[in-house]
Design brief:
With 134 residues, the chain is an alpha+beta fold. The chain has a single domain, classed as Immunoglobulins (Immunoglobulin-like), CATH 2.60.40.10. Helix content is 16%, strand content 45%. The chain is built from two helices and nine strands; from the N terminus they run αββββββαβββ. The chain has a five-stranded mixed sheet with strand order 4-1-7-8-9, with no helix packed on it. The protein has a four-stranded antiparallel sheet with strand order 3-2-5-6. It is globular and about 65 Å long. Belongs to the plant self-incompatibility (S1) protein family.
Length: 134
């Protein structure tokens, strides 16, 4: 393979990685936006990482960052507990979020999590994941 062909292929690979935001770190911020000044306990995990349990007072935030998996499949999920409610949500799902950029600002509300991303001024709100049956 000629040196020119190698350089061209390298540029193609870098362009693909750049378009899919694979090289940069993802930043996730989760804010307690519950009404009535309720505290929120969160516990976030991935297949490889347990980020621990965190107590968020009203309007407090918890942030973390990570690198996406090269071939996809990065998933972080969190449980959210307040009063007698226990909910969970996939806070970062690469197949859903890869086109959303690198910064995800989540507001946790009783009705579900809402995210604001760099490409939009309006938040996108999601329903909670289904409750698990014990």
């Amino acid at each position: 393979m000629s040196p020119v062909t190698k350089k061209f292929l390298l540029l193609c690979v870098l362009a693909v990685l750049s378009v899919n935001n694979v090289l940069g770190k993802v930043h996730v911020k989760i804010t307690n936006s519950l009404t009535n000044k309720l505290n929120l306990t969160i516990h976030c995990k991935s297949k490889d990482d347990d980020l621990g349990v965190h107590l968020l007072h009203p309007n407090e935030s918890f942030s973390f960052q990570f690198k996406r998996k090269f071939f996809g499949g990065t998933l972080f999920y969190c449980s959210f507990q307040w009063n007698n409610e226990l909910r969970w949500f996939d806070i970062y799902k690469q197949t859903r979020d890869v086109q959303g950029g690198d910064d995800f600002n989540w507001s946790i509300k009783e009705s579900g999590p809402c995210v604001t991303i760099v490409y939009s001024t309006q938040p996108f709100c999601f329903p909670w994941n289904p409750k698990l049956l014990m």
